[in-house]
Amino acid sequence: MLLADAAAIHERLRQTPSLTMIAAYTRDEAGNWLEESRGFIVPDDWPERARAFAASAL
To answer: SS3 of 42, please?
Structure first.
């Protein structure tokens, strides 16, 4: 199902001006959700914005 929505997800993230955290989950034998990994999707201009923010915080 997620692959069917990949284009919509890509478009939504492309229009998002801030970072987005993503995570991958799996279920254990008892049916509990366990986080396997996480990461961030950031806009192309994120490095410049992060440097500007760091400089203004000094």
So the answer is: coil
Helix, strand, coil tally for the chain in percent (to 5): 40, 30, 30
Contacts of residues 8-16 at CB distance under 8 Å and 24 or more positions apart, as own/partner, are 13/41, 16/43
pTM: 0.58
Instruction: Tell me which residue of 44, 53, 37, 50 sits closest to 16, measured CA to CA.
Output: 44
Please, what is the end-to-end C-alpha distance for the chain in angstroms? Answer: 46
- What pLDDT tens digit does each residue of the chain (58 aa) get? 556 688 888 888 888 888 889 899 999 999 999 999 999 988 889 899 889 999 997 6
CA separation for the pair 8, 31 (Å, rounded): 29
